[in-house]
Amino acid sequence: MVSSLDLAVLVAASTLAVGIAKPLQLSSGIFYSPGRHSQVTKTVIAEDLSLVAQHFSSIRTNSAKFNDISAIAMAASASLRIGVIVDLGVPWLIDSEIQAVCDGVDQYPYTVEAVYVGSESLKNGDIGMYTADQIIGYINEVKKCVKGKVPVGSILRANEWLHVDSADAVAKASNLVGCNIYPFFTPGTEPPIKKLEIQWGEMLKKFGHKVRLTKTDWPHMGEKFDDNVPSKDTMQQYFDDYRTTWSSYGKNQSYWFRAFDSTEISGARYEIFTGLFDINGVPNIQLPITP
């Protein structure tokens, strides 16, 4: 018979065991932006990346600088690797973005997994604002300054890589082909992981070993899109499928989108609620822990 004292000890021990369970750091990466903070400082970035580093081995950004703070240096200080973007969104800031990458690679060459010049920047209808030749010009600028220390490429949606002729020239000029795949915006009733696998297979068939998955997600809140409905259950299932049956089997580095729910994005709510954590750093779904 278990005494009340013994039971109390067992409960306390169980509680302690739960309390010290450690997050499992995945080999894959995640998109990070500090944009939800009213003031972006080294302190808040370091706090964010300390949390991210418990769960992931690397980050992907949407720019080389967080305001005037080096994204590469901040990743290095958090013992994270980084797939860094040269942001082409503001033309007069491109030179400073390239310089930040050049300086960062020079100081922290091991930290940088890859440099991606532009994200969804190729003109295709109302998407993108640059021609293939313009993007290739910037790719060559970056290649010149990183001197072969890290691979250089560009990021487009699967749709552009597969169906826009000028994308082939960008791919040819690139060491890596960064591909964003969005199961939520893909018509059909298949599970998200199946939609990912289909598009990934098409990308591999066309571009082979150059391909990297640079963005994929599922929103946990917001409006539906066609037959696709945001929910925590679907996000949980897709994230689990992605990390266990997709990214863990011989794939190169990939990035989930995103670490934190976003307050800096305007528009549909499904664009805001794709974070694995809410704006306060509380997990939106269950994340893996060490066995």
From TrEMBL:
One GO BP: cell wall organization
Keywords, in A-Z order: Carbohydrate metabolism, Cell membrane, Cell wall biogenesis/degradation, Glycoprotein, Hydrolase, Membrane, Polysaccharide degradation, Signal
Record-listed E.C. numbers: 3.2.1.39
Signal sequence bounds: 1-21
First-tier enzyme category under EC: hydrolase
InterPro entries: Beta-glucan_modifiers (IPR050732), GH (IPR017853)
Keyword Endoplasmic reticulum: no
Primary subcellular site in the record, as a coarse category: membrane
Entry's localization field: Cell membrane
Catalytic reactions on record: Hydrolysis of (1->3)-beta-D-glucosidic linkages in (1->3)-beta-D-glucans
Gene Ontology MF annotations: glucan endo-1,3-beta-D-glucosidase activity
Top-rank taxon: Eukaryota
Any GO CC annotation of this UniProt entry: plasma membrane
UniProt function note: Glucanases play a role in cell expansion during growth, in cell-cell fusion during mating, and in spore release during sporulation. This enzyme may be involved in beta-glucan degradation. Active on laminarin and lichenan.
Name of the featured protein: glucan endo-1,3-beta-D-glucosidase
